[in-house]
## 1
Amino acid sequence: MAKSGLGKFALGKGNANRGRVASGNAAVGSDPMSEMNTTPLIDVMLVLLIMFIITIPPVTNSVTIDLPTAPPPKPIDTPQSVINKVVILPDNSITWNGKPVTLDQLDQYLRQTTAMVPEPELQFQPSPNAVYDTVDRTLARIKGSGVQNFGFVGNEQYRSFDKASRMPG
């Protein structure tokens, strides 16, 4: 029998081997392969699983809970229309015109003052014993608020910074 140029196809005796690809571990003319290729079966099962997951309606059980309502916020005092003073005390507390405030309350006061026409002057007086971080955070809030009329007060306490005034007596 003449060989054709089919390469790996085994042509041989009878119809048993016609059109079969010869592989390295199966001899030409041996019994049919008894193992089933499960890859396509797994692929089809995964596709079906994804389709079922997508089509399942979401669980819509709802539980009604009566949540407590927050009390209305306390109205804050309106800033003075001429001069307001921010003081950092030695215990690192912040005061606005003599009343203790938090940084968030300070932001509210600053927003109110920048909305006033004309804008009131803001005076800033840090204590010499205040922690620098508190002073820095407060100044950053003041700068971020866009206050235009701003001044430092109480700087006369730092007037003499020569060696003689710093030496212990």
## 2
Amino acid sequence: MTDRITVTGNIGQTPRRKATPKGDVVEFTLARDQRVQAEDGGWRDGETLWYAVSAWDRLGASAETALARGQRVIVEGRLTERRWTGQDGVERLTRDLRADVIGRDISQRADVAAAAERPGGPRPSGAASGEQRPAGADRGAQPAREPLRPAPADWSTTLAVEEEDTPF
């Protein structure tokens, strides 16, 4: 079975490069936790699904340097499932995901939300740990940003578009 899918999860092992006759590939595992609704209406952790992710060529080189164990990522690619029998006689299932796109998932990071509220916006990487930055890298005091205004109830009154303005 081969399908295109998008999976969001946590990197289970640090990406590692492997040389093959077809070129270099970077491999890592990806864990996706499912949340399921319990009978009482609350939520609980369900089964963890594991994927063996492979990234080839430039994507693999980028993944090797940019990703680390524990990071939350989004991977889009082609899924292949293989069933096999282990030495103990138990039938197993392996989900292989050949990545076409890999990106970081920042949707559940509390520090990103807090940084957005902080004057001057988020800090550059390393600023929270006291790491020294090059001269001029300090963002210093920036002008206050105007707060977002709610959208008007009737958008048709805010946009005056004439037929001559239409580019097609």
## 3
Amino acid sequence: MITNERQYKITRARLREFGEALVLLGELPAAPRNQPWLRLAQKESIEEQIDQLQQQIDEYEKLKEGEIEISDPVNAVSRMPLILIQSRIARGWDQEELASRLGMKKQQIQRYEQNNYAQATMSVLSRVAAVLAGKSDPASQPASKQEKSRSPKAFAKGAKPQSARKQSVAKKNVSAKQRTVKGNKAVR
């Protein structure tokens, strides 16, 4: 989805580039060993990209012109907690089942629902909605214990979790002690 004028301009430029590539592909001479299925696959791939870009451009232009009716965002956001709770019940899940599928404790779901998800982050709301919709992707999975122990900066840099660093330091200390002990035995 195009979200601003800069993206709109970039998308229009990409659309022109793909259009030109399609024309150039059509002008290429057929080589004696040319495989027709390969040329067809290239053409279809470019056409698919053109279609996707054009759809994004059309949607953005229609939104700007007010041609697409958008529901009231305040109403949509304020109804979300009720929709999540109703979806859970309609699926026949209790709070414990939802919690299990999210990798949370039942008490956390109870707190969220009791307070109409007022303390939940957008990330949590998205994960709950994805699970209730039956969708599963890496973003909707709970973070592992190792990931939770990393700071966001350290995680982005690929640093080891703190517990792994402690284990590494402990191994080094044991190795140093073993060398000292072995060294002392050799002296005796």
## 4
Amino acid sequence: MGGMAGALYRRVRGIIESARASAARSVNTAQVVSNWLVGREIVEEEQAGKLRAGYGERLMRDLAARLGKEFGAGYGLANIKLFRQFYSAYPGLVGLPKGCAVRSLLKDTGPACVVSAGYNMPHHGTWRPGRLNSNLCWTHYRTLLRLDRREVRAFYEIEAVNNNWAARELERQINSLLYERLAVSREPRTALRGGQPDARADPLRRQERRRGPVHAGR
């Protein structure tokens, strides 16, 4: 396992260093993409060794121990597992072919930037939930990962983007059970949103009817 773990460490280390180099341009998006790429590396490495019992857990523990020493507590075991969960929940977040991002990030020519190295941010009119959006930082996604159902995550993603919610507001709306209240409401005026009556109680139909630039499709 030592040789493969060492290669994985070098790839992940390159992702993290590249993300940090691009922080002056887009620190939030760079962090999101970096964490997603780390998660993808872990999942793919796990799949390669899936026949070995306990391989994934040992892999993440080894990676966390090595990254933690170099990059600090932000890359401890809990976060390494969260990055893995992030990729599993959002496999299509970044439209890059497998392996392309890592090779681009490790090039010596020009500034290494997670976002600009082979990936263009979707135009606002073509964005859909499950894809990268510059209005959503890592704290937004970390909050969304608490939600098990994909359609509920998509609902809150759309609301956060359309209403420019800060991560704290997103958490507040989730804790207030906004989705559930809108879904069960029979009378539109009984569904409150942000303290005001919402005229369209069904959260999914309400988003489908919206004629804005954000789409609810997959």
